[in-house]
Write a structure and sequence with these properties.
With 234 residues, this protein is mainly alpha-helical. The chain has 2 domains: 1-54, no CATH class; 72-209, no CATH class. It contains 13 helices and 2 strands, in the order H-H-H-H-H-H-E-E-H-H-H-H-H-H-H. Strand 1 (98-100) and strand 2 form a beta hairpin. It is globular, with a radius of gyration of 18 Å. Residues 202-234 are annotated as: Disordered. Residues 213-224 have a biased composition (Pro residues).
């Protein structure tokens, strides 16, 4: 059975193979000629895919499918950083404003607006976000559970009313979580300390909960320090 461009891209990223191999897998018909010479990394591949489709739906599906292939905390850290960089590139290249975080428009001149809104919230999670994190956690007991991760996440989002008509806020909600998932053991420490959809936490900001926050609070929310893991191969 022939794989579509999204599934092939996911398989490519999950295996961490080279640009040449990515080109061979994607084939000549999947991207315009001017795209093919400009693709230099997995992040670029995601950005080109998002541009080509003009909406977030298939791009979000790609992210979720890729998460299904993450097998441990170290690999999750790499994936988080890749998605964070992808988020940055998408915001930088976006030509038309879209709604993010429920209300704030983000365009070329406001590429950090969403991350800034997270910073204003004190980098806090609400309970519903924590449930989503648990839903996409790759630390499953069986391969079948891993393969069902994306579907479980969508089901949870539907039941909790988090899926919106244009998928924009949902995509940003995912990146909201991605900005806060590194390192993974931090999530376990703070589980159960947050309230529901109003995003008003029952605990103080990360920096005051313990003597050792996830990373120095002087770093901007979109650029945490290097944790020692190598980026995905290009």
């Amino acid at each position: 059975m022939k794989l579509g461009p999204v599934k092939r891209l996911v398989a490519t990223l999950a295996r961490g193979i080279t640009k040449t191999q990515m080109d061979e897998m994607l084939g000549k018909s999947d991207f315009d000629p001017w795209d093919r010479g400009l693709v230099s990394s997995p992040v670029d591949m995601l950005v080109k895919l998002r541009r080509r489709h003009g909406n977030h739906s298939e791009f979000l599906e790609t992210c979720l499918k890729l998460l299904e292939n993450v097998s441990d905390a170290e690999q999750l850290s790499e994936t988080v950083r890749t998605f964070r960089d992808t988020h940055r590139y998408i915001d930088n290249e976006r030509s038309a404003p879209v709604q993010c975080n429920g209300a704030r428009p983000v365009g070329k001149d406001q590429m950090w607006a969403f991350n800034s809104s997270l910073h204003e919230m004190g980098l806090k999670l609400c309970q519903s976000d924590f449930e989503i994190i648990k839903a996409i956690s790759p630390l499953k007991e069986s391969q079948k559970e891993k393969s069902d991760t994306g579907q479980k996440l969508f089901q949870f989002l539907k039941e909790s009313g988090r899926i919106l008509p244009n998928d924009t806020e949902l995509l940003h909600a995912i990146f909201n979580l991605m900005n806060l998932v590194e390192p993974l053991n931090v999530l376990r420490e703070y589980e159960g300390k947050f309230l529901t959809h109003d995003c008003q936490p029952s605990a103080p900001p990360f920096s005051s909960i313990s003597q050792q926050p996830p990373y120095p609070t002087t770093y901007p929310p979109h650029r945490p320090p290097n944790t020692g893991y190598s980026p995905l191969p290009t």
